[in-house]
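I need you to check the entry underneath: sequence plus fold tokens. Let me know what the token row says about the fold.

>
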Amino acid sequence: MSLMVNDFDISIMRRCLELAKLGMGYTAPNPMVGAVIVHEGKIIGEGYHHRYGEAHAEVNAIRSVKNLELLKSSTIYVSLEPCSHYGKTPPCADKIIEMGIPRVVVGSTDPHDKVNGKGIEKLRNAGIEVVTGVLEEECDFFNRRFFTYHRQGRPYIILKWAQTDDGFMDIDRDQNPDGKYWITRPETGVLVHKWRSEEQAILIGYNTYRNDQPQLTTRHYPGNSPKRYIMARQPERLTPIEGFTLLPDDLPTAMERLYDERILSVIVEGGRKTLDQFIGAGLWDEARILTAPVRWGAGTPSPIVQGDTLLEMTLAGDQVKILKH
């Protein structure tokens, strides 16, 4: 981080992240980005990337400025490096140069192979002062889905399941093959639907689909429903399932398919077998575990994972825990 960074720069970068979060669930496969323009210590413009295919954060921030002449003596803060290539929209670095903004403060460097420092280089070559790495760790984590996709060549994987207080996630299907059995409270269900709205895709195994016929939508929370996938041992032999995409029950192949379809993140809500496949392969980034204050005494045991705790809270009596791999 540059020695020129001060507490004010850090506070404005936090505002960029607040703005960026407003695009949650709508920008993928693009990242979420926020931008703030400051003139003589006063915010004169703000913007964020609203939706994939629409204007980027920097452009929206510039458009919000009433007196464009002030841009020539302003600083633009942006949570992710301004793009330097033509995609759905023109390069943001070019727009900053065109408007004569003399100083740019950047949170993360964009890992996309078409950017990855090229935006910063273009700005500096135009004589613009560029400060990098402001709140870099927070900015990187905020766009962890985008970073995982471009750095590791796969989606960001979130495992999710509900369990009883005595460690069971499902009934014994050999004894009770049919029917749905809810574990957590309705309020926790709303949280789960919020989580779904934040991810591009949701995945279950074929047995879970056959047993529960889940909708996997966001019907209890406003927002986009994720694209729905089912992993099956021999998907080519199954009758197509309306509203779902079938994937092979082979993780490397399934991940390659999702990557090719530009899926940045997947929430896995499968049964024990599907979850164990991901856990056994070490192929997960977060585990979100919901524990209800009920005891069954028997059933399908819940998976066991180890990780660093990101969040612990109580919601309507249910325990919510999020682990980071």
User: Anything to note?
Assistant: Residues 137 and 256 are 28 Å apart (CA to CA). The mean pLDDT is 93.
